[in-house]
């Protein structure tokens, strides 16, 4: 499936066209979004995308819609710019939610679709997730270095979103995990593909099958987190990282592009895995759905109190 067809599918499935207010000549920071905030840093040639989902600390349909629209604006900005004057060199994905990066899939939606045996609903949501993940993973087909700033828990799809970036900056104490196995599923929106390319298939399967939480420090030791920051210092540390690397951006971006050539992440691979995920989701039992519900309740309490999901 082409990128254009994937984007069209996202717009159709999530109603993006009617909800996005897009000017005739889109500027990266001049589009009104509902669930992200975009900031440009001209000094570092960086664009910051701050996630701020409404209603749930997860990849809501609105958040997916807004990120997709933002990604299209980035592509259009490159198309309009002179080759020697790219509109940006870095793209940073971060979160406005205190103590949370993103807690993954919208579990309330999942439960409803599974109980209704709604294959199309599950498939459309999964495809919308991989649409935005794949665009991150290929750096918008430009020499953009993508960075995830993780200042709190990154679970399920949140972990997948961070892994889709070239580099991860994480504050000490941040937790990463793929809890899907706890309710008899697996993370079907990129985790296996991304982890296998970074740590190998055996280690990827071990991480996914464990369902455990990993600290930022543990993942730094494994090479999955490239830079550690003290709690509360993540933004400043990311700025320092960008400043240190600005003069060698050409070499680093070429290095990451070479990595994509050595181990290309094909959209078809992600799509086929989402089909496996949908089939598996439709087979889970009511007891598994109750476990999913308890995790949803824990996430809701976390959103209200700022407590740790890990403690639930």
Automatic annotation (TrEMBL):
GO terms, molecular function: catalytic activity
InterPro entries with a match to the protein in the record: ClpP/crotonase-like_dom_sf (IPR029045), Enoyl-CoA_hyd/isom_CS (IPR018376), Enoyl-CoA_hydra/iso (IPR001753)
An individual GO BP term: fatty acid beta-oxidation
PROSITE patterns linked: ENOYL_COA_HYDRATASE
CDD domains noted in UniProt: crotonase-like
One Pfam family, short name: ECH_1
Gene3D superfamilies named in the record: 2-enoyl-CoA Hydratase, Chain A, domain 1 (3.90.226.10), 6.20.390.30
Highest taxon of the lineage: Bacteria
Entry similarity comment: Belongs to the enoyl-CoA hydratase/isomerase family.
UniProt protein name: DSF synthase
Species the sequence originates in: Hansschlegelia beijingensis
């Amino acid at each position: 499936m082409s990128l254009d067809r994937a984007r069209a599918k996202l717009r159709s499935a999530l109603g993006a066209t009617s909800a996005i207010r897009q000017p005739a000549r889109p500027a990266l920071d001049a589009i009104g979004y509902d669930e992200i905030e975009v900031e440009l840093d001209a000094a570092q040639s960086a664009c910051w995308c701050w996630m701020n989902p409404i209603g749930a600390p997860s990849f809501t349909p609105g958040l997916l819609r807004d990120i997709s629209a933002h990604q299209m604006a980035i592509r259009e900005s490159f198309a309009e710019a002179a080759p020697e004057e790219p509109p940006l060199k870095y793209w940073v994905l971060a979160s406005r939610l205190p103590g949370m990066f993103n807690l993954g899939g919208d579990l309330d939606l999942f439960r409803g679709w599974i109980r209704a045996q709604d294959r199309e609903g599950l498939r459309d949501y999964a495809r919308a997730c991989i649409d935005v993940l794949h665009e991150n993973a290929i750096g918008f087909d430009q020499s953009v270095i993508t960075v995830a700033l993780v200042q709190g828990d990154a679970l399920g799809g949140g972990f997948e979103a961070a892994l889709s970036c070239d580099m991860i900056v994480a504050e000490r104490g941040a937790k990463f995990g793929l809890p899907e196995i706890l309710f008899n599923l697996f993370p079907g929106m990129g985790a296996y593909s991304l982890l296998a390319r970074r740590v190998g298939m055996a280690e990827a399967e071990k991480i996914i099958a464990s369902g455990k939480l990993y600290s930022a420090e543990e993942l730094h030791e494994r090479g999955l987190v490239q830079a550690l920051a003290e709690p509360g210092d993540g933004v400043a540390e990311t700025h320092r990282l960008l400043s240190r690397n600005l003069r060698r951006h050409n070499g680093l971006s070429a290095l990451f592009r070479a990595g994509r050539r050595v181990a290309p992440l094909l959209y078809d691979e992600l799509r086929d895995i989402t089909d496996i995920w949908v089939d598996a989701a439709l087979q889970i039992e009511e007891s598994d759905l109750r476990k999913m519900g308890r995790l949803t309740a824990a996430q809701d309490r976390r959103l209200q109190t700022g407590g740790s999901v890990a403690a639930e």
